[in-house]
Amino acid sequence: MIFAVYRSIFVFPRKLLRAGAKVKDSCRICTLETPKALHMKKIKYYYNTNTLRYEKLETPFRVKLLRIFGFIAAAFVTAALISLLAFRFIGSPNERLLRSENARLRDHYKELLDQLKAIQLEMKEVEGRDNNVYRAIFEATPIPDSARAKDLEKQIEIASVESMKDNELVSSIGALLNSLSNEVKVQKASFNEIDGLLKNKEQLLSHTPAIQPVSNKDLNRTASGFGYRIDPIYKTVKFHAGLDFTAPQGTPIYATADGIITTAGNTGDGYGNHVVINHGYGYETLYGHMVRVKARDGQQVKRGEVIGWVGSTGKSTGPHCHYEVHKNGQKIDPIYFFYNDLTPEQFDLLLKKAAASNQSFD
Q1: With left for phi above 0 and alpha for psi between -120 and 50, is residue 228 left, alpha or beta?
Q2: What is the torsion angle, in degrees rounded to the nearest 10, for the CA atoms of residue 140, residue 141, residue 142 and residue 145?
Q3: Which of 62, 138, 186, 266 is the most exposed place for a label (fewest CB within 10 A)?
Q4: DSSP character for 152?
């Protein structure tokens, strides 16, 4: 149809004579081709009004080239327009396949995002148990949230996914997976640490203060507890950072846990002859006012080993053992570290005696 249109545009609208007809002018100069010749090639004639003759129509070669070029150009432009309209409103088969594949990938991305959110919730539960249960049991420092790769809190809402480009989707999934991978690494390191604590649990228990520093089966030697007490020298209320155990001079004083002696002697700080033991795991104990010190600096001692004897040296009003427990540099109540010595009933009784408001011995 297009060919016919352009043929009608570029070809002169001249009537051809019917095949087989013979035309002669008055001078019998020109005739049309015979039917036999028409099968080979059609020759066109036109009537020249000047000469009053039918003359043969000859098209110049330049015109032929222009017609051919115009026809080809018009064909290409028409084909391009048809293709553009078809691809604009219908789309190519490849485009339809790509749209279908893109929709499938977006659905898959949403599924992956849901799975990541579920894994994140599980990780939060594991992190909570790690900090509040496992590490609390072994008195390990909780891992701060900043170390747990909080990037997962910046996840993309599914509504914004619809407007994302392919590279943004890939980048988003990569960021989420990378953040989750960081959390897993941190959690794995924490569990490895707890595993090490489990293996050293027996050692941890042996290095934790767990007995009274002097023999006190009947609990009659507990004289003054932890807290604010009346100072025996200045008669003012001052903070008493340990427990006082009264006992005759020369009564053995025992190490309450395994450790290494860091101080043994009189350093002029009011404790008189005293011993300080570093037990590790943040624990340290002090034994004051000894009449004589048996332990030496740097010596390793075991729980229950004699390290000195009760006396009244330093700032003291009578023979007694001043006992302190320190955890990570903080002085804490020693009464909670006698669980190897006491029954629940004895602990309640000792707690009442230590809480009595009275005068300390130092």
Answers
A1: beta
A2: -150
A3: 62
A4: G
d(CA 337, CA 285): 11
Burial of 134 (0-12, 13-18, 19+ CB in 10 A): middle
- The whole-number average pLDDT for the span 51-58 is 82
Who contacts 256 (Cβ-Cβ below 8 Å, separation ≥6)?
A: 209, 210, 211, 212, 213, 285, 303, 323, 337
Structure tokens at 332: 């804490």
Residues 118/119/123/124 CA torsion (nearest 10 deg): -20
Least confident of 112-116, 175-179, 340-344: 175-179
DSSP 53: E
Percent of the chain clearing pLDDT 70 (strictly above):
69
C-alpha 119/C-alpha 172 separation (Å) is 16
Residue 190: both structure tokens together: 């924490």
Domains of the chain: 2-88 (no CATH), 99-199 (no CATH), 222-355 (2.70.70.10)
* pLDDT score of 132: 61
pLDDT for 270 beyond 60: yes
| pLDDT, tens only, 1-15 | 444 444 544 444 443
Residue 109 to residue 100: CA distance in whole angstroms: 14
Residue 154: CB partners within 8 Å, gap ≥ 6? none
Q: Between 146 and 97, whose confidence is greater? A: 97
For residue 286, is pLDDT > 60?
Answer: yes
Burial 264-285, CB ≥16 within 10 A → b, else e:
beeeeebbbbbbbbbbbbebbb
Helical packing angle, 2-10 and 61-89, nearest 10° = 150
**What is the spatial distance between Cα 248 and Cα 319, in angstroms, rounded to a whole number?**
6
Residues 253, 230: Cα–Cα separation, whole Å = 25
Res 103: pLDDT:
82
Q: Around Cβ 214, how many Cβ atoms within 10 Å?
A: 20
Per-residue pLDDT, 12? 40
This prediction's pTM:
0.48
DSSP 174-232: HHHHHHHHHHHHHHHHHHHHHHHHHHTHHHHHHTS--S-SS--TTSTTEEE-SEEEE-T
